[in-house]
Input
Amino acid sequence: MIRRLLARLIPGRPARAPRIYPPGEHAVRREQIPRGARMVTEKLQEAGYKAFVVGGAVRDLLLGLVPKDFDIATDATPEQVKPLFRRAYIIGRRFRLVHVHVGGEVLEVSTFRAAQKNDDATDEHGRLLSDNVYGTQTEDAARRDFTINALYFDPATEEIWDYVGGVTDCRARRLKLIGPPTTRYREDPVRMLRAVRLAAKASLTIDPKTAAPIPKLANLMHNVPPARLFDEMQKLLLSGRATEALQGLRTHGLSGGLLPLLDVVLEQPGGTRFIEVALAGTDARVREGKPVSPAFLFATLLWHEVVQQWHAATARGERPIPALHQAMEQVLAVQAQRISVPRRFEASIKEIWAMQPRFEQRAGVRPYRLLEHERFRAAYDFLLLRAACGEAPDDLANWWTRFQDASPLEREAMLRPSEAPRKRRSRGRGRKQRDAALADPAGDASGSER
Ligand code: ATP
Ligand code: MG
Output
């Protein structure tokens, strides 16, 4: 009774009773839910529990997008869920949920939970350190981030249960936080990043009250574990709307805290174009359902800063290859302070960068060796990107395009004459020329090969 009264009095807090939209009032149909997810909700309901498809999937279906995954929410505890299915596994230590395997699908079933309210649960900035308390469905809706992410679809009745006005916001294509924005961002600063990502992904307008505190609170991002930031950032970059999303990060003052070097890159001549071309290419691939490597993306985002530092070092007289490696290390070290790029990706990023000068070498056995390199494909794509931006000669990119598909005889005919005799004639000059070409990824020096 008191809670109901409070819910009415405190604006932004959800009312206790949901608004239930019958199938006639919305367009989401049970056929849009994969069989596995429907089977799981059915079984849970047969066992007497509540079960809904929840979150991103309902949002995407209402917005006319294709959902990535179909999460399920229930009032059954993990221990009650598990025995209902043949292949179900309880996972997670702090917050336990159940993975149900159906055919090739894995469905995530989570128990309704409430946000923890006591002081121990937050750090000194207000960040929630745990949210592992089971709760009612109302509480489960309230602890979610945005109104459009707190909708529950029951495949059996085709009803949508809405505690927070999410259906109206979907229709208005409006992204609105549940509850007071400043508190919600303090609880979890990643929500700022999610706001920008979801707005870009689904072409939504961020509600002014939801958008307003972001620039002021952007520095809370420093407080988020870098591994978590990597996960969200990866989602952002692979959303198929990375161009818009990165623009959004800049508009809302978030980019500096996430990709400390991005703003630097975007101010360099050619830097903006490089990233725009890279992201446009990535977005197109994602939308066509083709695979994209996060390593490749991070390599493109940071490349111009590497080039800048590399140039500076060679201008000081350092040898090109060691200078390149040093620049790579420095750039990755600065980046790692914010977003921790997993080691395996870091290794690939370095390989993509380090292979760029090797494309210049088109004599002898070197092109064959490069072709066999595990990371050749990504490095070659990177070369194409540099060529598309006028940073590498088109001729060089075309040569590699042809070389890959050529017959052994054709390949041999394509090889450039070995540099060895020239080197013997004038060793000093030959090395200097080669060094100049290597140190100039913008392609001026290698233009002589055109
Ligand atoms: P996507 O389709 O890109 O995966 P999503 O909204 O489904 O977007 P998930 O990370 O899969 O994103 O999260 C699933 C659901 O969990 C969200 O829809 C939301 O209800 C809830 N959620 C996720 N992150 C948060 C958060 N930081 N704070 C509160 N709720 C969250
Ligand atoms: Mg999701």
Summary: Residues 355-418 form one domain. The two ends are 80 Å apart (CA to CA). The first strand starts at residue 19 and ends at 21. The pocket of adenosine-5'-triphosphate (ligand 1) is lined by residues 55-56, 68, 71, 144-145, 149-150, 188, 190-191, 235 (CB under 6 Å).
